[in-house]
Design goal:
The chain is 32% helix and 23% strand. The chain has 3 domains: 2-87, Rossmann fold (3-Layer(aba) Sandwich); 95-297, Mur-like, catalytic domain (UDP-N-acetylmuramoyl-L-alanine:D-glutamate ligase, 3-Layer(aba) Sandwich); 308-452, Mur ligase, C-terminal domain (Protein-Tyrosine Phosphatase, Chain A, Alpha-Beta Complex), CATH 3.90.190.20. The longest helix is centred in the middle third of the chain and has 16 residues, at 270-285. Helix 5 (114-127) packs across helix 8 (270-285) and helix 5 packs across helix 9 (290-297). It has helices at 11-22, 38-44, 77-85, 92-99, 114-127, 197-210, 224-232, 270-285, 290-297, 326-339, 381-386, 394-401, 412-421, 442-452; strands at residues 2-6, 26-30, 65-68, 89-91, 104-109, 133-135, 147-148, 154-158, 163-165, 168-171, 180-183, 216-220, 238-242, 247-250, 253-258, 261-265, 308-313, 316-321, 344-350, 374-378, 407-409, 427-432. It contains 14 helices and 22 strands.
Length: 453
């Protein structure tokens, strides 16, 4: 099979290209910019385009399929040529479905927790040598790629609710037609696409409608939106509610209470214990009993950038977290405060996404940083300009967060100097962002920790 990728450099796109290359497909691709680690990975497999840009001549009649990434535009010359030739054009999720038609499809959806739950499931399956294909949105310890396509009977998919492609404005998770599904929570996000909370929630209702008849929906019963949505669904689905497992913290270690006794885990926070509960239900439906599940989950280290310990020295710890939505910010901060109750917590949050930089939506962050001993918000005028957003003032941010003590920085150097100058013992630094704080160096920060302690 001969396939061309338009926008091959994307995180998901390049992983799919590599997975199909491993299957023996003939792969080509284009992009106008490719960054690490995509660049090196594509180069190692001989798939890195020799020249950046879009070239209509790459689109030929002998292509079996064209896979279109979200980074491309509707007037992309390669896309226009493919349409002119009448070639089969797939969005990323559409092609995944085509490859998984004969498999049992397990789809993990939700505004928060879906990457972590998917990662937990894959960790348990790998621990017990259970073969499964997968698609996950983060790099996992012990996994070379974020996509695997083989002859396995199961495929586990992180069900993203963002759009499928520039010419298909429906959410990705509508495409997979799951046999086994999970919804972890619903909290309005992606406001550049879903203008109201009702519109956003409706996408999850459609997701339930896409499930295979007689399939199952596992859902977080503690989330009111999810509970009401599933309760009102009249389709013939098996419904499995889950709640946060009983747990305790002893000497900085979280333990889960199970029928076999207390099980220590490497991750922490009520939201992660809730995620474990959801993952257990899915693994049970895939043939893993409770005892085996808890044996495996005790060694789960977490997904990349999800409360990831990036550096530490003596009694100072620095965690990186992908949190960017209000519910995620509050949950991550709450988890750190609970786990390190004898420490001061410095919570840093970067306004980076379209939603977080929107003057109206930012009101959703009210009180989300209140638990921090020191709360810092960082954003730049460049980020606003890149997204064509109007300016935000320091007072607007403090008012939106309902926290007058918040420190606000708009300069990367000043932000880094602030952290370097006020290092002290028994502190936890929680760095929450889907960006990088203007190039903040964790290596330099770790050096400062050593110097100052």
């Amino acid at each position: 099979m001969k396939i061309h990728f338009i926008a091959i450099g994307g995180s998901a796109m390049h992983n799919l290209a590599l997975a199909l290359h491993d299957k023996g497909y003939l792969i080509s691709g284009s992009d106008d910019a490719i960054y690490e680690p995509s660049k090196s990975r594509l180069a190692q497999s001989g798939l890195l385009p020799t020249q950046m840009g879009w070239f209509a001549e790459k689109i030929t009649e002998d292509l079996d399929a064209v896979i279109l990434g979200m980074h491309a535009k509707k007037d992309n010359p390669e896309l226009l040529r493919a349409q002119e030739l009448g070639l089969k054009i797939y969005s990323y999720p559409e092609f995944i479905y085509e490859e998984a038609k004969e498999k049992t499809r397990v789809v993990i959806g939700g505004s928060h927790g879906k990457t972590t739950i998917t990662s937990m499931i894959l960790h348990v399956l790998k621990y017990w040598d259970i073969e499964a294909d997968y698609l996950v949105g983060a790099q996992l310890t012990g996994f070379d790629r974020m996509v695997k396509l083989s002859d396995a009977d199961f495929i586990v998919i992180e069900g993203d609710e963002y759009l499928s492609s520039p010419i298909d404005l429906s959410p990705k998770f509508h495409k997979y037609k799951a046999h086994i599904a999970l919804i972890s929570g619903i909290a309005w996000d992606h406001i550049n696409v879903f203008k109201t909370a009702e519109d956003y929630t409706h996408q999850f209702s459609i997701f339930l409608d896409t499930l295979v008849e007689g399939g199952s929906i596992t859902y977080n019963e503690e989330d009111v939106e999810v509970r009401e949505l599933v309760s009102s669904c009249e389709r013939p689905l098996r419904k499995f509610p889950y709640t946060t497992l009983e747990h305790s913290i002893v000497d900085g270690v979280t333990f889960i209470e199970t029928e076999e006794g207390r099980v220590p885990i490497d991750v922490f926070g009520k939201h992660n214990v809730n995620n474990i509960s959801g993952a257990q239900w899915i693994c049970q439906q895939m043939g893993v009993d409770a005892a085996d599940f808890f044996e495996a989950i005790s060694s789960f280290k977490g997904a990349a950038k999800r409360l990831e310990l990036v550096c530490q020295h003596k009694n100072i710890k620095v965690y990186k977290d992908f949190a960017h939505a209000p519910s995620k910010v509050k949950a991550s901060l709450g988890a750190v405060k609970e786990q390190f109750d004898a420490f001061k917590v410095v919570a840093c949050f970067e306004l980076h996404t379209y939603s977080s930089l929107n003057a109206e939506f930012i009101q959703q962050y009210a009180h989300s940083l209140d638990e921090a001993d020191e709360a810092i918000v960082y954003y730049t005028a460049e980020a606003l300009a890149l997204k064509n957003m109007p300016e935000l003032s320091v007072e607007e941010i403090r008012n939106a967060f309902k926290n007058p003590s918040i420190e606000v920085y708009t300069n990367a150097k000043a932000f880094e100097e602030r952290l370097h100058e006020q290092i002290s013992d028994r502190r936890v630094y929680l760095m929450m962002s889907s960006g990088n704080y203007g190039g903040f160096s964790f290596e330099n920060f770790e050096t400062k920790l050593v110097e100052c302690s």
